[in-house]
Each structure stands twice: as structure tokens, then as C-alpha cells.
Amino acid sequence: MPALNSWLDTPLGQHVLAREQAYFDQAVADVFGYHAVQFGLPDQPLLRENRMPWRCRAGESGAVDVTCDPAALPFASQSLDLLLLPHVLDFTSHPHQVLREAERVLVPEGRLMVTGFNPISLWGLARRCKPRDVMPWRANFIAPGRLKDWMQLLGLEPADCQHLCYAPPFEREAWRARWGFMERLGARWWPLAGGVYAISAVKRVRGMRLLAPRWSLLTPAPLAGVAARPAGQRGAVSPSLNPKAPSMKQTE
Q1: What pLDDT score was predicted for residue 158?
Q2: Residue 126 and residue 250: Cα distance in Å, rounded?
Q3: 3-state helix/strand/coil string of the chain
């Protein structure tokens, strides 16, 4: 993550960061609750448009409020209403454990927002030609479809997926400017081929509701033509008052 923060200061990194900041500004504005945490990219105010009373920046290093490992978050279970993980899964060796921790700390119906580099894009194609020890090509590049499957296994239901950065990842601004039309047309013509994806998921908790028995269905119905005997009365059952019922005569 420190190497990622350094790369974000480059022109290409600023290009990515500007689009992610615009995404988070819109995505977090309508998420309500009490506690929100941003893990990673501590220099970026990704929660600035959110209105929760308690907001925190966490990370492994840097100017953060809480220093911790994303695979072992120091928050109580079911205590956070919103958790942001910008490119955290891209640069961890334990992405499954990070997702388990995210599911643990979120309240039911809590929101998780993840960004990552998309292997099914021009960025993923460029990664095959770049040295893997250079940022950002050393990232995991987890496919969004696979990440959604991981989330669903943990009860995190993907609610929205957006793609950003459709232009080729040129380092020079002049070259990116020539391909700027792809940023404008990408969402329409090749919506799943953005170099960066952003997934928003909701924690679902399957509840159990007890159903009371319908005792009226279990009570035996009275016999046709015979009135029910009052409780506590002994003797023969009274005949029905239905005039069509046959009369009961005493035999001699």
C-alpha cells in the first residue's frame, strides 16, 4: 500500500484517483448510519461526502487514525455501517480473510465498497507486457465476477458494480488525451472493460420467523345436524334446531 500511495502521485495515478474520488463522492452520500471506516489511501478523503457522525481512516501505515492489518480489523463484530476498501484486495496475500473481516465488522444491511484493477480490460492486457515488480502491475488483478462470487459466499450481496478508466494506461498525458473519447463512450460501448471496477455490496443476514399454529384448523368440527354440547353438561347431545333435520321420537 505505501508503494501504491507513491504511484498515485504520478500522472497516471492522478488520472485513476480523480475518477475513484468522483465515484466515492456519489456512492457514500446516501449511505446512512453511525460508523464509517476507510481502510487504505489515507491521504484521500473518500468519505468526505458521507454524513455519519463517526468516521475513521485506518491503514497499515501513514497518517491514519487506526493502524492495523486489514485481515485483523480492531473493530467489534457488527459495529460498522460502512467500510471502504480501495485497492486493498489488490495488494494483500489474504483477500479471502480480508473479506471475512469485512463481513464480521459490518452490521446487518451494512455497506461494503471495494475498488480494484480489472484484468478484463486494456489495463489487464498491458499488465502482460509490463514487469510485475512495477506499480500498479504487481496488483492481484482479481476479476470482478470472481470477487462477486466470494462476496456472495459470505453473505455480502453485490448491489452495484461500476467501471472506470476506459482509456489505455498511457503514462504520458498527451497520449491519454488522444484516447479521451474512450472515457466518454466506454460506459455505453464496452461497459465491462474499464481498467478499474468499483463494487458496492450489502451484508444480508437471513433471519428466522416462528409461525404460530392455527389452532382453529386443529379443532374438530361438530357433526352435521347436531349442536355442540356446552362445556360441563352431561347427558345426551341435544338435537339440532334445523327444521329439516329428522325428528327424534322415543320408542315404547
Answers
A1: 96
A2: 105
A3: CHHHHHHCCCHHHHHHHHHHHHHHHHHCCCCCCCEEEEECCCCCCCCCCCCCCEEEEEECCCCCCEECECCECCCCCCCEEEEEEECCHHHCCCHHHHHHHHHHHEEEEEEEEEEEECCCCHHHHHHCCCCCCCCCCCCCCCCHHHHHHHHHHCCEEEEEEEEECCCCCCCCHHHHHHCCHHHHHHHHHCCCCCCEEEEEEEECCCCCCCCCCCHHHHCCCCCCCECCCCCCCCCCCCECCCCCCCCCCCCC
- Tell me the pLDDT tens digit for each residue of 193-203: 999 999 999 99
Mean pLDDT confidence for 207-222: 57
**Polymer length of the chain:** 252
The third-level CATH classification (topology) of the domain covering 2-192 is Rossmann fold (3.40.50)
Query: How is residue 47 written as a grid cell?
Result: 468519505
**Domain range summary for the chain, segments of one domain joined by +:** 2-192
Q: How many CB atoms lie within 10 A of CB 141?
A: 17
Grade residue 2 by pLDDT with cuts at 50, 70 and 90: confident
User: What's residue 177's pLDDT?
Assistant: 83
Encode pLDDT of 124-151 as tens digits: 999 988 887 889 999 999 999 999 999 9
